[in-house]
Amino acid sequence: MLTTKQKDKIIKSYQDHEKDTGSASVQVAVVTEEIERLALHLKKNPKDNHSRRGLLKMVSHRKSLLDYLSKNDEKKYTSLIKKLGLKK
Question: Where exactly are the structural domains of the chain?
Fold first, then answer.
C-alpha cells in the first residue's frame, strides 16, 4: 500500500495540469507503483494467493486504462509507456 506522500509524489510527476489527480495517465502511474510493490511482496511470500488475486486485478485495471489511452491519445500513451518502462 502506498502512503499518501508517495502517492502525491507520483501524481505530481504524471499530472497534466495543477489539479489533475484522476486522469488515465495518473491512474496508470499509481497502479504501476502498487503492482511493483505487490510483486516484491509475492516474491517473498509465494503462497499468498489472496494478494496474487489482487495483483492480477490491478494488472487488468492498468491494461484497461492503457487501452483507453491508446485509443484516445496515442501520443500520451507512447510517452507514458516509455516513462514507466512498460512493454506495448
Answer: 24-84
At the fourth CATH level, which superfamily is domain 24-84?
Answer: S15/NS1, RNA-binding (1.10.287.10)
Concatenated DSSP letters of 11-68: HHHH-SSTT--SSHHHHHHHHHHHHHHHHHHHHH-TT-HHHHHHHHHHHHHHHHHHHH
In eight-state DSSP terms, residue 1 is -
In tens, the pLDDT along 35-76 reads 999 999 999 999 999 999 999 999 999 999 999 999 999 999
Q: CA angle, corner 73, sides to 54 and 71, nearest 5? A: 65
